[in-house]
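Lecture 7, part B: from sequences to assemblies.

Below are the input chains for today's worked example.
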Amino acid sequence: MIKKIIILLILILPLLMNSTEVFLDYFPMAIGEGTAGNINTSMIETPLFFYNPAINSGKIKSFIAYEHKFLLNNLTHYNSVIITIPVAKTFGIGLGYINQNIDNIPIFPEFPNNIDSIDFTPQGYFSDNAHAVYLNLAYTFIPEGYRLFELSGGINIKYIIHQIHTNTGMGSGIDAGMNALFYLERINFKYKGMLNYFLVLKDIGSTIIKWDTPNEYRDDRKYTAITGMGYSINIDAIMTKLGVEINAAYGNEKKIGFSLNCTYNKLVGIYGGINYRNEMNIYKISDPAGGISLYSNGFEVYYSLSYQELGFNHSVSLGYSL
Amino acid sequence: MNGDTCKCDISIEFNDSLLVSNEWNFYKYNGTIEKFELVNEGLNNIDISLVSGINRFIVAAHSDTIPPHVDIIIENKDYVGNVILSEQCELAFTIEDESGIKVNDIIITLNDDTIPSNEYTIAENTDLRNIPLKMTKHLADGIYKVKISAIDIYNNKTEESLEIKVAKTFAIISAGNFPNPATGDNTVIACRLSEQASEVILYLFDARSRKLLRESILPGSDLIVTYNLSTAGFSNGTYFYYFEALKGDNSESVKSAILKMSILK
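Predicted structure of the full complex, as structure tokens:
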């Protein structure tokens, strides 16, 4: 009985606290915004290890990209940068950076004893700046001989600095992920395309942020487990690559996600995504998003738009494969 | 002179070079304030207007560099927190200067449109060292910038402006949380209504736009509505919130702007 209660508490614990360092829950890079964060598989070429640390392996080119988001009708801004380098055919490393700025936060004094003397004129303004730096290591196991599958694994080590007004919080955390890629056609001629299965564990053992406030407050960012499948296929007749992904997340984030990606002739692409997310203990459709991409001479340009209850998110990113 | 006024150009030359100075100006006597007021800075290209009768001019220098002091006052009784809760806006201005003010050079603008002088009144027998102005305007709901500029008799200029909001209809005039950042165990989220509401709803979101709270408040006859938020269970970070106020049988609703609140425990 006690064992059951302990297991139940472990499962319920993430439900009791509001998420901490929520800027880590935004979707880095424009294609991430446009697919509502549902790009954990290798169905896209871009090695966005923010989502699944395993997918930055088995690449043959280095990649660099920058993104800027105008969030919630310009209420706040967000930046992300990614650099990936294939050290060997089966091993890749990457560096990432994400940042959210919230400016013009008004300063108000203590609530007055006499309610009629309340003054809504701010006494000044301050900012909230959150930063995270990622180091990614990823490895792919490729069986010898006739290849039916590939198995990749990777980890992200992330360091967080969060400044609000005159105080700073700092902490670090670890994400890990795996991706299994199956070449269906090689397994059975009746089938086409590639099937991915993935599992990602974020903030393993909690990511702890320590604040330099007078009471040295500590925030715990609880784990999230995400698992799902992706399928992609090249339709040569129309020079198009199609990909879909479905996943489920549990823990700090609780949702079911879906995305669709379509690229024509390696020149232009469209993509979209949506989540079915828990909010105030009610599951509802959220983060409807979409975007467009252009590819030319190693350059990639993305624009994405998503809807949130507080406004629209606009995201633009530019990438280059070396 | 054929009429009441005429214009002429004059030039002044000093025979003694010791008298030549950049500080000499040309002044005309103003009988109303019994002072000479600046007509032309320097003594070159002087262009003056003469009126019938005696015109008195002097060449002199002045040391007054202080511009007039200007105040803009909203005289509406229902003026709360920079918001006028009436379509009839009663504006008053006071302009003070020890040397005297050039009345004809007073300019009042409303959202950059100049108000004609016949739309505001100056009390009779006003001392030109202290000029009160009054103006009544009928304004639709919105935000307006009132600006006044005035110069004294030595051409020292001053400008003053005030932004006002007119909300004669049902509105949430202002909102905030006290204190912000919230460093203690709680923060009071408050808003001020233009008139009584049947229900006020507070919505609170995290910085990722995920809704964390929907709290219904029955304000009764209060125009200031408050909600005491415990910071327990909230992480350090910035949150967004807004109010929605419902009136009468909930047929009319208004929302406040989205506001930012930080928790720093």
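Note for the exam: Chain A touches chain B through 53 residues (CB under 8 Å). Keep this in mind when comparing with the next example.
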